Amino acid sequence: MASTNDLKNGMVLKLDGGKLWSVVEFQHVKPGKGPAFVRTKLKEVLTGKVVDKTFNAGTKVETASVDKRGMQFSYKDGEQFVFMDTDTYDQIMVDPKVVGDAANYLLEGFEALVAMYEGSAIYIELPASVELVIEHTEPGVQGDRSTGGSKPARLETGAEIAVPLFIVTGEKIKVDTRDGSYLGRVK
After folding, report:
1. What is the DSSP letter of 90?
2. Which end of the chain is less packed: N or C, by CB atoms within 10 Å?
3. CB-hemisphere CA count at 13 Å for 133?
C-alpha cells in the first residue's frame, strides 16, 4: 500500500478489483478552498486504455510489485516472442498481445524492458527511438507534393511508416517507437 502523495510516473497500481494501472502523469492540487487532491492519468496495463482519475490527497492505494528487467529479443517462435534476460540468460516466451505495437520495431538482438508481474510478462517498454533500415520505398519525384512531401516506406521489421521524399531504399533511419514517426537519417 502507498499513499497518493507518494505517486510517481511509471508506478503500477492495483485498482478496480485487481486491474493493473500504470501512472502516466500525476499532479498534486491544493485549491484555495477545500481539501487537497491528486489528479492522475492512468493507463491500464493489459488493454492500454487511458483514463483520468482523481484521488483525495493521502488516500491509500494498493501498489503492484512489477519487476522491470532489461531483456534482449532473441527470436519469434511461431506466434510467441522469445526474450532473454541479459543478467541470468533465462529465456521467456511473451504473448503477441503483450508485445502489441512494439513488434513493429523489434529485431533480433534489440534491448527492451520487460515488465514482469507474478511470473508473467505484462508489457514491453522499448527505447523512445530505434534505428532501422528501409527495406523498400518508391523513389520520390522532385515536385511531387500531393502527399505533403512524404511517401510510404516499409522497414526491415515489416512495419510501414511515412518518410520524406528524399529517403531511399537501404537507408538507415531513426523511428519514434511511441507513434511510428520518422525522426531523421542515421549517418
Report:
1. -
2. C
3. 5
Strand order, beta sheet including 67-77: 91-94, 80-85, 67-77, 111-117, 120-125
CA-based diameter of the chain, in Å? Answer: 62
Is residue 61 within 8 Å of residue 2, measured between CB atoms? Answer: yes
15-73 per-position pLDDT tens digit: 877 788 888 888 888 888 888 898 989 888 777 788 898 888 888 888 887 888 889 88
Name which of 126, 112, 107, 129 is nearest 186 in CA terms: 129
Q: Where in the chain does DSSP place strands (E)?
A: 2-3, 12-15, 19-29, 37-44, 50-56, 60-63, 67-77, 80-85, 91-94, 111-117, 120-125, 129-137, 150-155, 160-164, 172-176, 182-185
* Cβ-contact 75, 22 below 8 angstroms: no
pLDDT for 128 beyond 60:
yes
Q: How does DSSP classify residue 139? A: P
Q: Taking Cα atoms as reference points, which of 151, 154, 161 lies closest to residue 135? A: 154
Instruction: Establish how many alpha carbons lie within 13 A of residue 32's alpha carbon, considering only the half-sphere containing its beta carbon.
Output: 0
